[in-house]
C-alpha cells in the first residue's frame, strides 16, 4: 500500500535509498546534509545494512567504493567542503567503474561559505571537478518527493552504467518539509554480472563490462591506473589509455537519451524557462500565476549528461531564461547548444528567486 | 601449495628494483596466509600508492589498488560490507603515515579487523627518493639534501597509542620472525599492524652510505633491538641506544573490535 508522509527532504533521500536496497552508508557529518547520515544511522542497522561514520569525507567515499566491490549498494552524503575533498576518489570510482551514489546537499560556497543556506554552486564541479576527462550522471531534485524517487533512481543508474551517480540536491530541498507519497516498491535494475572466463574490464556492446564482485572467485585486480581489459596496469600505453578514457566517457554520453529525465511544458512558447533543482519551484509558481501558452518550461531532472536535444523541442523559442542559485553555471552549458539568447537569472545568498524576480526577467527586453 | 601459488605469473616481471626488500615482505605475508589456510576466493588485498602498494596487483585474489593514502579507508568499506572476507592492506611509510595518517589512526581506534603490513623503506621510492615521515634525522633524500632535520614517526608507537589490538615490528632480515608476526596479526581479531623495515637501494641506500644491498640489510639486523632486551635495559636502569629500533611483538590485546567475522 502506498502511504503518505510529511517528511524533510533529507529524510526522504535516506528513505529512498533504503527503498532502493542501499545497504552501506559511509559518511561524515556536514551541514546541510547531516540528516541523511543520521537517518541512515538509525534505520540502516535495522535493515541489516551497515552504517559507518568515517574520519573524513575522503574516507567516506573510499569506504563506499570498497563496499560497492563486495556487491553492496552504497552511498555517502555531503555538502560543498566535503564534496571538494571527495574529488580524487570520485575519479577513482569513474576509472574503476564502481557503482555508487553520492548525495551533495549544496550550500553556499566557496569555502565554508553558507552552511545553512541553499545554492547550486557545485554543478560544474560535479561534472569536471575530478582531474582528467570523466563522465558522470547527476540528478537534481526539486521537491521532497523527488528526493525520494531520484535517490532510488540513482542506484539503478549507478548499477546499470557502473559509474558514480550524484544526487545534486540543495539546502532548500534538503531541509524543507512536504507531503510525500511513498510507493509500494521501487523498481530495481540489477548489476550486470561478469560472465566467468571473460576479461573483467572487457566491455560489452553497451560499452559496459560485467561486474566481478569481490569474494565470488573472479580474482579481479581493480586499479585507478590506466589498465587493460585484464585490469592490469598499462599506464604507458598511449592507445590503450585513449581507448579506455574514451569508452568511460562514451558509455555515459552515448546513453544520454536513455538517461535523460525532463519535462517540456508549452513547446511552442517564445519565452522558455529552464530550471533544475529548487528554482523549478519558483518557475512553477510563475507559470501557475500567469497561465500563458507563450511561456514555456524545460524542467530538467538529469542535469548530467545534459539533455541538449530537449532544447530543440522549443521550435519557436526567442530566448531561454535560466534561474540558477549560482552565477550561471548551467546557463553556459545551454548557451553552447542554442543560437537564441540565454538570459541567466543568477542569485546568490541562499534564498530562492521570488516569482517577482522571474516575472521581471520575463518582462525585461520583451 | 606454497606462497608462490598466490602470485599472478602473468604479471611478471614485477616493477621492484634489484635488491628491493618489498618482495621479501610480500613473500612472508603470503607464507603466513598460506599457513592460515585462507582461501583465495575469500581474501582481498587492498593497497594505496607507492612501491609497496603495487604488491596487491601481483596476487591472484581480488585486489583493490586505490588512491594515495586511502587504502585503509577503502579496506574499511570492503570489510564492513562483507565481514566474511579476509582483508589485508599493503602500504608504505609515505602512504600510511603522511597522506594516510588520519585513516591509519582511526582504523586503529575502531580496531577494525584488518591486517596492515607496512613496508617502511624510510623514503618515497616511487617518486625518486624524497624524505618521508619515517626518514631518520640526518639522512639524505632529494628533499632533505643537507640531511633530514625532522623527527621521524614511530609507526608502532602510533598504532599502540591509537588502539590497535596487535602490533609488531621486524625487518627484511628477520624473515621467519616476520612471517610469524604476520600470522599472529592475521589470527588477531581487530586491527593488526606489522611494520617491516626494508632496504631501498635505489632511493635510500645509495644516498646514505649503503654501497651494497647487503650493507643495508646488515644495518637493519645490527640496529634491531629485541623488545625483551629493551625491556631488560629499562628494568636495569640502563640507557636504550638511540640509534636502534625496537623489534618484536609490541602489543597484543583483546580490545573490542569492529568488523570481525561472526
Question: Percent range for helical residues of chain A?
Answer: 25-40%
Shape of chain B: globular
> So what's the CATH class of the largest domain in chain A?
Alpha Beta
CATH homologous superfamily descriptor of chain B:
Thiamin diphosphate (ThDP)-binding fold, Pyr/PP domains
- How many β-strands of chain B, per DSSP? 8
* Biggest sheet details of chain A: 8 strands, mixed
Task: Give the N-terminus to C-terminus distance of chain A in angstroms.
Answer: 49 Å
* Helix count from the secondary structure assignment of chain B: 8
| SSE arrangement of chain A, N to C | EHEHEHEHEEHEHEHEEHHEEHEEEHEH
Structure notes:
The complex is a heterodimer of chains A (366) and B (262). With 366 residues, chain A is an alpha/beta fold. Chain A folds into two domains: 3-182, Thiamin diphosphate (ThDP)-binding fold, Pyr/PP domains (Rossmann fold), CATH 3.40.50.970; 263-363, Rossmann fold (3-Layer(aba) Sandwich). Chain A contains twelve helices and 16 strands. In chain A, strands 2, 3, 4, 5, 6, 7, 8 and 14 form an eight-stranded mixed sheet that branches. The termini of chain A are far apart. By secondary structure, chain B is of the alpha/beta class. Chain B has one domain: Rossmann fold, CATH 3.40.50. Chain B has eight helices and eight strands. In chain B, strands 2-1-3-4-6-5-8-7 form an eight-stranded mixed sheet, sandwiched between helices. In chain B, helix 6 links the parallel strand 5 (166-171) and strand 6 (192-197). In chain B, helix 1 crosses helix 6 and helix 4 crosses helix 5. The model of chain B has no long low-confidence stretch (mean pLDDT 97). The A-B interface holds A 23-24, 26, 50, 52, 54-56, 58-59, 62-72, 74, 88-89, 92, 212, 214-225, 230, 232-233 and B 8, 10-11, 40-42, 44, 46, 56-57, 60-67, 70, 73-82, 84-85, 102-103, 106.
Amino acid at each position: 500500500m502506498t502511504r503518505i508522509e510529511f517528511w524533510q527532504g533529507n529524510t526522504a533521500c535516506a528513505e529512498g535509498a533504503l527503498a532502493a536496497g542501499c545497504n552501506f552508508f559511509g559518511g561524515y557529518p556536514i551541514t546541510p546534509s547531516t540528516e541523511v547520515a543520521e537517518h541512515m544511522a538509525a534505520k540502516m542497522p535495522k535493515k541489516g545494512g551497515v552504517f559507518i561514520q568515517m574520519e573524513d569525507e575522503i574516507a567516506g567515499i573510499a569506504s563506499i567504493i570498497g563496499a560497492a566491490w563486495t556487491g553492496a549498494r552504497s552511498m555517502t552524503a555531503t555538502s560543498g567542503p566535503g564534496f571538494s575533498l571527495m574529488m580524487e576518489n570520485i575519479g577513482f570510482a569513474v576509472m574503476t567503474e564502481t557503482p555508487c551514489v553520492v548525495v551533495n546537499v549544496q550550500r553556499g560556497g566557496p569555502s565554508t561559505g553558507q552552511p545553512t543556506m541553499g545554492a547550486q554552486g557545485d554543478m560544474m564541479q560535479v561534472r569536471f571537478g575530478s582531474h582528467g576527462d570523466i563522465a558522470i550522471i547527476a540528478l537534481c531534485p526539486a521537491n521532497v518527493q523527488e528526493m525520494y524517487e531520484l535517490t532510488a533512481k540513482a542506484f539503478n543508474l549507478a548499477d546499470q552504467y557502473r559509474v558514480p551517480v550524484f544526487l545534486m540536491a540543495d539546502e532548500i530541498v534538503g531541509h524543507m518539509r512536504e507531503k510525500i507519497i511513498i510507493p509500494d516498491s521501487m523498481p530495481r535494475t540489477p548489476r550486470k554480472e561478469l560472465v566467468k572466463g571473460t576479461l573483467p574490464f572487457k566491455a560489452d556492446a553497451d560499452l559496459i563490462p560485467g561486474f566481478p564482485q569481490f569474494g565470488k572467485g573472479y580474482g579481479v585486480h581493480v586499479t585507478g591506473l590506466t589498465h587493460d581489459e585484464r585490469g592490469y596496469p598499462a599506464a604507458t600505453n598511449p592507445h590503450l589509455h585513449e581507448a579506455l578514457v574514451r569508452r568511460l566517457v562514451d558509455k555515459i554520453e552515448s546513453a544520454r537519451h536513455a538517461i535523460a529525465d525532463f519535462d517540456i511544458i508549452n513547446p511552442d512558447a517564445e519565452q522558455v524557462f529552464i530550471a533544475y533543482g529548487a528554482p523549478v519551484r519558483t518557475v512553477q509558481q510563475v507559470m501557475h500565476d500567469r497561465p500563458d501558452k507563450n511561456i514555456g518550461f524545460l524542467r530538467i531532472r538529469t542535469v548530467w549528461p545534459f539533455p541538449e536535444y530537449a532544447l530543440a523541442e522549443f521550435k519557436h523559442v526567442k530566448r531561454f531564461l535560466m534561474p540558477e542559485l549560482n552565477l550561471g553555471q548551467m546557463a553556459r552549458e545551454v548557451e553552447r547548444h542554442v543560437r537564441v539568447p540565454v538570459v541567466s537569472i543568477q542569485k546568490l545568498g541562499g534564498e530562492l528567486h521570488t516569482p517577482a524576480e522571474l516575472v521581471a526577467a520575463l518582462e525585461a527586453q520583451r | 601449495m606454497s606462497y608462490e601459488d598466490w602470485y599472478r605469473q602473468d604479471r611478471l616481471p614485477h616493477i621492484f628494483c634489484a635488491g628491493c626488500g618489498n618482495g621479501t615482505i610480500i613473500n612472508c605475508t603470503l607464507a603466513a596466509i598460506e599457513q592460515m589456510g585462507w582461501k583465495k576466493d575469500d581474501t582481498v588485498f587492498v593497497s594505496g600508492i607507492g612501491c609497496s602498494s603495487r604488491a596487491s596487483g601481483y596476487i591472484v585474489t581480488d585486489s583493490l589498488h586505490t588512491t594515495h593514502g586511502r587504502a585503509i579507508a577503502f579496506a574499511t568499506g570492503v570489510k564492513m560490507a562483507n565481514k566474511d572476507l579476509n582483508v589485508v592492506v599493503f602500504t608504505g611509510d609515505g602512504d600510511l603515515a603522511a597522506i594516510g595518517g588520519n585513516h591509519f589512526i582511526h582504523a586503529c581506534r575502531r580496531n577494525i579487523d584488518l591486517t596492515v603490513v607496512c613496508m617502511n623503506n624510510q623514503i618515497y621510492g616511487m617518486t625518486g627518493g624524497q624524505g618521508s615521515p619515517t626518514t631518520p634525522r640526518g639522512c639524505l633524500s632529494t628533499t632533505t639534501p643537507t640531511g633530514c632535520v625532522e623527527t621521524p614517526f614511530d609507526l608502532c608507537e602510533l598504532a599502540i597509542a591509537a588502539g590497535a589490538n596487535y602490533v609488531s615490528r621486524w625487518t627484511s632480515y628477520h624473515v621467519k620472525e616476520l612471517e610469524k608476526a604476520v600470522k599472529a596479526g592475521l589470527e588477531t581479531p581487530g586491527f593488526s599492524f606489522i611494520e617491516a623495515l626494508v632496504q631501498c637501494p635505489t632511493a635510500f641506500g645509495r644516498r646514505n652510505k649503503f654501497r651494497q644491498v647487503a650493507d643495508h640489510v646488515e644495518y637493519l639486523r645490527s640496529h634491531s633491538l629485541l623488545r625483551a632486551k629493551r625491556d631488560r635495559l629499562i628494568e636495569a636502569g640502563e640507557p636504550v641506544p638511540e640509534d636502534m629500533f625496537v623489534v618484536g611483538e609490541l602489543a597484543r590485546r583483546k580490545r573490542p573490535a569492529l568488523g570481525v567475522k561472526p
